[in-house]
Specification:
The protein is of the alpha+beta class and 618 residues long. 56% of the residues lie in helices and 9% in strands. The strands form three sheets. Strands 2, 3, 7, 8 and 9 form a five-stranded antiparallel β-sheet that branches. A three-stranded antiparallel β-sheet has the order 4-6-5, with no helix packed on it.
């Protein structure tokens, strides 16, 4: 587990070499361009959504044509642009159609009328109102000679009133109806024109669907072109030279140096300075990739912090097992994992949107690692730990084996012993918080900067020891040891929370840092949810077993069927609740409590400027 060291590279070359150089970097694919003269956090080279949006628009067409495979008459850029234009055109026309329908509906009660010209109206306008019968008495008195009104229609609910006035009447009991400046006849005429235009646009859309297959195979090319054009705008051009900067993994420097020498590009590089904010490139072994995905699901660690992927993966699996708290459920998940193991390991065939369209799934996709392949090791670890923890607490679909049996002798924890299980949950939480502070302390180049985190680790450890000494008479001396460790840890917090400040400000900042004592206490106690949810899962399983036994005992014959249904439904529901709770709260304890102490800085992911060729279609 590590965050890959980056260096800041600067390139200067002749303007005539800019385009070939960008092409080389695009193929090199291991740097993130820093926009010159702009926001240094703008990611360049990321996937463009335009081509995929165009393809999605064509795939969702009401009608599709037979696919063309001959590229001789196919222009991917033209098809993409025309599809996007049609999408915008259809959206605009449909919006206008909806507005016309609303205006026609609003004008219908007032009859079929036409508007006179402004000259004929002499500056007056028509204002339309739907006034409920009960509000007629609320109409203002009509004493102004320049204003007239007439009821042009009635129904059981409203009177339809037209007011002639230069300005909108004031004091009306209801808001005016927004009919617009066109008569019903003009609205119907325009509606017909819009509907014909929509039909024409949909017909052209259907025509373009014949290129879906070739457009899908060209997605990488279109996105590469968009990324390449974007990169060209991120350089500083001062004819006859250009300059650009990029973040590059330190391990790629030799290869990049050779590439620059071949092109005659002036090239220098240096490590990032502490006041810079480089992107974060995490690299983990195959079996730990799922942990990296869990971390990035919530946040990306800052470049100057550390990679928690392996710890998050293992702790998430442990928390899941403690919440599920049943070996039978764990084995059932193992059977499901075995059933889907090969399916999870299949190489990706591209975007889900493409593979779901059977009529264009004719390409030869390149294999790549799927999310299923990345998560298989973590899922296997979850199943293993769920079974092991279920055996330790002696729960098999809510049934506890007899103490004299083999499984009974393997039971080391009693879920019904609240004091013991709460102690286990608090111990796990305390160790998790301690580990977070230790890892945070280790990231500093100057060891003294990490002493405040070491102090919090010592304070939490001291609290655990003191709590154990108070709860277990046999280890009472731990109270003294834990108290001393806690005091030493808190003194370290006061002394080193702001060690670079002046003495008085340093002392005040340290004392202010002690306010996190309540946060540490609350975060450790938050892990009690592991015990509570595990106990709830075990109790529900046992309750469904008892319910089924009572039904079978009360109805000896047909009761067996109802008992089996209760068992099936009850345990399925309990397993679903256990899995959802394990995922939600297992993640929460990592990304809230653990990250709160272990990851102090948020970052952004390293986005390489590289080609996407082969990532979806050949």
């Amino acid at each position: 587990m590590s965050i890959v060291p980056l260096e800041r590279a600067t390139f200067v070359g002749l303007s005539s070499e800019k385009e070939p150089w960008l092409d080389d970097l695009h193929r090199f694919g291991s740097l993130e361009i820093i926009p010159l003269g702009g926001d240094g956090h703008v990611a360049v080279g990321g996937p463009s959504s335009q081509s995929r949006e165009a393809l999605k628009f064509l795939l969702t067409a009401p009608q599709r044509r037979r696919q063309v495979r001959d590229r001789s008459q196919f222009d991917a850029t033209e098809v993409e642009q025309r599809a996007l234009q049609l999408q915008a055109q259809i959206q605009s026309l449909e919006s206008e159609r909806d507005d016309l329908l609303l205006r026609l509906e609003a004008s219908k009660p007032f009859g079929d009328f036409t508007f006179a010209s402004p000259e004929q109206m002499n500056g007056l306008r028509l204002w339309f109102y739907m006034v409920p019968h009960k509000d007629l008495t609320k109409l203002p008195p009509n004493q102004d000679l320049t204003t007239a009104r007439e009821v042009v229609g009635r129904d059981h609910r409203c009177c339809y009133l037209v007011v002639v006035s230069a300005e909108e009447p004031q004091g009306m009991p209801v808001p005016r109806e927004k009919i617009g400046s066109r008569s019903p006849h003009e609205l119907r005429q325009r509606l017909e024109e819009v509907e014909l235009a929509i039909e024409d646009a949909q017909a052209e859309r259907a025509y373009l669907t014949r290129w879906c297959l070739l457009l899908a195979r060209s997605l990488a090319m279109l996105e590469d072109a968009a990324a390449r054009a974007g990169a060209a705008m991120q350089t500083s051009d001062l004819d006859p030279v250009f300059a650009m900067e990029a973040w590059v993994p330190a391990e790629k420097m030799d290869e990049l140096t050779d590439l620059a020498d071949q092109r005659g590009i002036v090239f220098e590089h240096r490590p990032p300075t502490p006041n810079e904010d480089p992107p974060t490139l995490m690299r983990n072994e195959t079996r730990l990739e799922a942990g990296e995905d869990l971390v990035n699901f919530y946040m990306t660690p800052g470049y100057w912090t550390w990679d928690p992927s392996s710890i998050v993966l293992i702790s998430f699996a442990i928390f899941f097992a403690m919440i599920l708290a049943d070996a039978g459920y764990g084995m059932l998940l193992g059977v499901a994992l075995l059933f889907f193991w090969k399916k999870l390991g299949r190489p990706a065939t591209g975007d889900v949107m493409l593979t779901s369209a059977e009529d264009i799934e004719q390409g030869q996709p390149n294999p790549q690692r799927t999310a299923g392949q990345r998560f298989r090791p973590m899922l296997a670890l979850i199943v293993l730990l769920s079974v092991v923890y279920g055996v330790l607490v002696g729960s098999y679909f809510g049934i506890t084996p007899p103490p004299e049996s083999l499984l009974g002798r393997l039971q080391l924890l009693d879920m019904n012993n609240s004091q013991l299980m709460m102690g286990v949950a608090v111990l796990v939480g305390g160790l998790h918080v301690i580990l977070a502070n230790i890892m945070d302390a280790r990231r500093y180049d100057d060891w003294q900067d990490g002493l405040a985190s070491w102090g919090w680790a010592a304070a939490v450890a001291g609290g655990l020891l003191a709590g154990a000494g108070a709860a277990i008479p046999a280890v009472q001396p731990l109270k003294i040891i834990g108290g001393a460790a806690g005091i030493i840890g808190l003194l370290m917090v006061v002394a080193f929370t702001a060690r670079h400040e002046k003495p008085l400000r340093r002392l005040l900042s340290g004392l202010l840092g002690l306010t996190k004592i309540s946060a540490a206490f609350g975060d450790v106690l938050s892990y009690l949810r592991l015990f509570a949810l595990g106990l709830a899962s075990a109790s529900l399983a046992a309750a469904f077993n008892d319910m089924a036994a009572d039904i079978h005992g009360g109805l000896p014959r047909i009761g067996l069927l109802f008992a089996l249904l209760v068992l099936l439904f009850g345990h399925a529901l309990n397993l679903l609740l256990g899995v959802s709770s394990g995922v939600i709260h297992g993640l929460r304890l990592n990304v809230i409590e653990f990250f709160n102490w272990g990851l102090k800085d948020d970052g952004r992911r390293f986005t390489p400027f590289r080609r996407k060729e082969g990532s979806t279609w050949n």
